[in-house]
Amino acid sequence: xxxxxxxxxxxxxxxxxxxxxxxxxxxxxxxxxxxxxxxxxxxxxxxxxxxxxxxxxxxxxxxxxxxxxxxxxxxxxxxxxxxxxxxxxxxxxxxxxxxxxxxxxxxxxxxxxxxxxxxxxxxxxxxxxxxxxxxxxxxxxxxxxxxxxxxxxxxxxxxxxxxxxxxxxxxxxxxxxxxxxxxxxxxxxxxxxxxxxxxxxxxxxxxxxxxxxxxxxxxxxxxxxxxxxxxxxxxxxxxxxxxxxxxxxxxxxxxxxxxxxxxxxxxxxxxxxxxxxxxxxxxxxxxxxxxxxxxxxxxxxxxxxxxxxxxxxxxxxxxxxxxxxxxxxxxxxxxxxxxxxxxxxxxxxxxxxxxxxxxxxxxxxxxxxxxxxxxxxxxxxxxxxxxxxxxxxxxxxxxxxxxxxxxxxxxxxxxxxxxxxxxxxxxxxxxxxxxxxxxxxxxxxxxxxxxxxxxxxxxxxxxxxxxxx
Length: 469
What we know:
Number of helices: 21
Distance between the termini: 62 Å
Strand content: under 5%
Oligomer: single chain
Shape: globular
């Protein structure tokens, strides 16, 4: 088993290595140029469209509901834990945050293209049921001869949802956060299949499976309705807490920005020489930015396709705001909190501990347990909504693979709930690595389609804005 795990880790390093990261970034640069900096020029309009739904649009959920469904899968533990991992003293340092911003800026153009194509090539059935995403814009946009590539994407997507990113990794994160707060020393345990587990873990598994089951059995409309409430709610709580931290420690903000830019350009290298320092900060920041906002992976357009809209450009703009909210807003709040409080430089801390320590130190007027509780609640909500979002992605991928079989989707749904239930007890590293590999492999068919169809994206985008002026 150890040899198999090491083999998977080597494959993971290849899949998520420099070539894929460079491919995604170059695609972002290419689309930014072809769309003439659309993510800057039309961002105000995109933010306006985010809240203003089309009255006569066709689809299953509102544009805002589709965005919240996508954000539910995108805003996850990576926004709290992932940022801390990227800018830790043993990783990229504060400079990684700058490169995360750059990845998000380019990723907004990529996300726009994904949202545009999702609506442009989606399939709407007679009963109003919508199916769309990379598999349809690959098949209908590139041609039927590329259907094998679309099937490949759908297979990888269904696997990611069921076997990792959507279930085990998120559930395990929730369980660890709950146990870490309520029973860190495992004083209350129960024996299950020869192993001792904290009662907090057992209760979490049951409650979480019930909550997920009640939502996902209701299908997309229920997932969207829950996401429209939970996503803004959890994001506001976290952003407000981080803003309060920044405001009460405002004198440290200028110094934090200085550290970020010095680290990004090697003026103040954290390890090795100047060029080595820049390379590490760039690699960690860009990789974390891509992981966080999922630009280029092809997940968000699956939700975008269901939006009630008749304008692909309009939905592309709304989809683009997801990257802005996820990375430019939420990840920035985390990054500034950590850099301002200096917890990134503490070698004794890792992962969520870095962010927790920053909140406890920055929100000094609160008892440390209260600050830690706020962060735990945010983590739980972030991970819970990611579970919901990835169930929807997985279902749509399987629906395409099975040629619309509702029976296959129902079986997938129940298997998904089961995976959530057993998630807290899964400790095999191979599970996370396999999920990571599938997640990276999703990007390749999607990126190919974005590049091939970039001419259509550019042409119709220009025509849309020409009509508006």
